Amino acid sequence: MREGSEGGVIEGMTEKLYFALAAAMWLSPRQPGEWRTTLAITLLLIGAGAREMDLHKALTGFSVLKVSFYLHDRPWHHKLIAFFCVALVAGAAIYLLLKYRRVLWERFKRLEPVTSGLAIFFATLVISKVLDRSISILDEDFGIPSSLEVLALVSALEESIELTLPVMAGLMRWQYLKLYKHGAPAQPEQGRNNA
């Protein structure tokens, strides 16, 4: 069951798809002045790919996504590098949220394809994280260990679900480009420089 395990073939495909999509963001057409949004989405895709590669544990073997990494005795330069990388990705997410929250909500209420896809993307992300933690929670919090078969099944299911995330992101990009090509307004507010 190596294909569906951590570090297996499926996870490797997920990593590559995130990075390929990040590159494709710059190779596909953009509206004038849209480079900031493209950069922010690119940073999120690279962050997701790096997370899939477990680069968040590469410096010291401990996750830089946990506050305890910064509070415990770690080399200061590791903390600085980690903080810079995490801040870049978090800043990109905050930028997109602040800039597009109203227009995304309005378009979601109209069930437009890109915003519907975004909602499905986040729901799928939550499901994959619940699956990822479920075995540990059952074992650590409730004292219910899982058999090797259950571990393999949950791992394969979780990795397969995670593979759908960059696929969905690519589909949303394609839908966005299709709408833009047909003249639908892609920027949150027409007549203003929003990027």
Descriptive key words:
6 helices, about 200 residues, single chain, mainly alpha
Task: Please explain how this structure is put together.
The chain is globular, with a radius of gyration of 19 Å. It has six helices and no strands. Helices cover about 70% and strands about 0% of the residues. The chain is mainly α. The model is unreliable at about 190-195 (pLDDT under 50). The longest helix has about 35 residues, at about 75-110.
Strands, helices and their partners?
Elements: H1 9-27, H2 35-52, H3 67-71, H4 76-109, H5 113-142, H6 148-181
Helix pairs in contact: 1-2, 1-6, 2-4, 4-5, 5-6
Question: What's this model, at a glance?
Answer:
The chain is mostly helical and 195 residues long. The protein contains six helices and no strands. The C terminus is likely disordered.
Low-confidence stretches: 188-195
Note the gap between the termini. 45 Å
Overall mean pLDDT stands at 86
Q: What share of the residues does DSSP label as strand, in percent? A: under 5%
Q: What structural category do the secondary elements indicate?
A: mainly alpha
Indicate the radius of gyration in whole angstroms. Answer: 19 Å
What pattern of helices and strands is seen along the backbone? Answer: HHHHHH
Determine the number of helices (DSSP H or I, runs of at least 4 residues): 6
Count the E strands: 0
Helix content: over 70%
Shape: globular
For the biggest sheet, the summary is: none
